[in-house]
Write a structure and sequence with these properties.
A hairpin with a 6-residue loop joins strand 9 and strand 10. This protein is an alpha/beta fold. 40% of the residues lie in helices and 14% in strands. The strands form three sheets. Strands 2-3-4-1-5 form a five-stranded parallel sheet. A five-stranded mixed sheet has the order 9-10-11-12-13, covered by helices on one side. The longest helix is centred in the middle third of the chain and has 20 residues. It is built from 14 helices and 13 strands. It starts with 6 loop residues before the first helix and ends in an 8-residue tail after the last strand.
Length: 401
């Protein structure tokens, strides 16, 4: 293979790099051990995986042609192999291969293993759909790779991305013990509640800025691509099953946090329990749903939820015109806490975090009645900029990552 054979890839790479800005980094950027020989970055469409790897190239390579970026959904790969591209890179002074959308390439795991084993001085970074079970692919890469999951933007990141205020992420322990001091500092600089309202409507996916007024329609299109393109690329499903997946998602979107009667749910879309549970679990892996249960997940079996939420409040806005405020509050709390914590459904209250803390979520008039006298219990309260004691503003739970 000669340079003329990959000219189209090089052109596209340079164009993407030219368009990439480095003024804002996602939270995961500094957590990745970029020196690893093989790095996998999973995440939903639109959360910024591509931008992040291009930022790394732009900031760490004085000669950008010592690296090569390629998206595996490029038509070039319909007549060429990934391994042949790696051979070209290895023999032409390229030290790092950055591969986007690997789930769109059928034999990605086998060929990446071949690259890893035969070209030890060529480092590989790849991105994939959050649905891709990279740890359980046909070829075991678990001993060779470091895998990370990139979620959508936290409220803290949104504030920085908007140029409103820069806040360092904090631990949940710090937030619980110092929330009054932290809130006083932040609210002395900005009016936080209007910003929080904007974030809940259009701030989870970084592309909201470029999309402008078309953000929700663009987000609908992202959801459609996940179901119609990414899902079939990861698992073999029929067209009718794909259509049932859309029906299932919309049925849930139009409900309050669904107190799940699985028989009723699956009957509504005319599917079996087995297929219905499979689709629910795939939609959660796609970062479109959150399946909520009293039990910790058993990764060998399908999760059987007791409540179902859309994955974030922006999806609620995009998929249905009527958004229940209580649902939006609970969705935000579960979404933000689930990134770094185990969150289960308790017998009393709304959320059990790490089997240590109990939370009830509600509006400004929320009381402790439901969790009175329970140890380590807190209120996460909306429509208030500052709390006291165990009463903490809801927006502050967006400062954790």
């Amino acid at each position: 293979m000669e340079e003329k054979d990959i000219e189209v890839l090089i052109y596209y790479y340079h164009l993407k790099l030219q368009e990439t800005t480095t003024s804002f980094h996602r939270y995961l950027y500094d957590q990745i051990n970029w020196s690893s020989r093989l790095i996998g970055i999973k995440g939903a469409r639109g959360v910024g995986k591509t931008t992040m790897i291009l930022q790394y190239i732009k900031e760490h390579f004085s000669n950008v042609d010592e690296a090569l970026y390629a998206s595996l959904d490029n038509m070039w790969f319909s007549v060429n192999t990934l391994y042949s591209l790696a051979i070209y890179a290895h023999t032409h002074g390229i030290t790092h291969l950055f591969l986007d959308e690997v789930h769109r390439y059928k034999s990605w795991s086998q060929e990446i293993k071949m690259i890893y084993d035969s070209m030890p001085d060529l480092k590989v970074v790849y991105t994939s759909s959050s649905m891709l079970e990279v740890e359980r692919s046909k070829v075991d890469l678990s001993r060779r790779q470091s895998v990370y999951h990139l979620y959508g933007m936290s409220f803290r990141e949104y504030l920085e991305y908007e140029g409103v205020v820069a806040i360092e992420p904090m631990s949940l322990e710090t937030l619980l013990s110092q929330h009054v001091k932290i809130a006083m500092d932040i609210t002395s600089k900005i009016k936080v509640l209007p910003q929080f309202e904007k974030y809940q409507q259009r701030g989870y996916y970084p592309f909201y800025k470029e999309a402008g007024a078309e953000y929700w329609s663009r987000l609908q299109e992202v959801v459609k691509i996940i179901i119609e393109v990414d899902l079939p690329a990861v698992t073999e499903i029929s067209f009718p099953t794909m259509e049932k997946t859309k029906q299932l998602l919309m049925y849930i979107a139009q409900s309050k946090p669904l107190e799940v009667k699985l028989r009723t749910l699956f009957s509504a879309i005319e599917t079996s329990r087995e297929t219905g549970l499979f689709l629910l679990n795939m939609l959660e892996k796609a970062d479109l749903l959150m399946l909520f249960s009293t039990k910790k997940p058993n990764y060998k079996n399908l999760k059987i939820p007791e409540k179902i939420y859309l994955q974030n409040a922006n999806l609620m806005q995009a998929l249905t015109k009527t958004t229940d405020i209580g649902t939006a509050r609970e969705t935000f709390f579960l979404n933000q806490l689930s990134v770094n914590h185990s969150v289960l459904m308790p017998q009393t209250g709304d959320f059990n975090v790490d089997d240590q803390w109990l939370f009830e979520v509600g509006g400004a008039n929320k009381t402790f009645d439901q969790i009175a006298n329970l140890p380590d219990s807190y209120l996460a309260v909306d429509n208030t900029d500052m709390g006291y004691g165990h009463r903490i503003p809801l927006w502050m739970f967006g400062l954790l990552y």
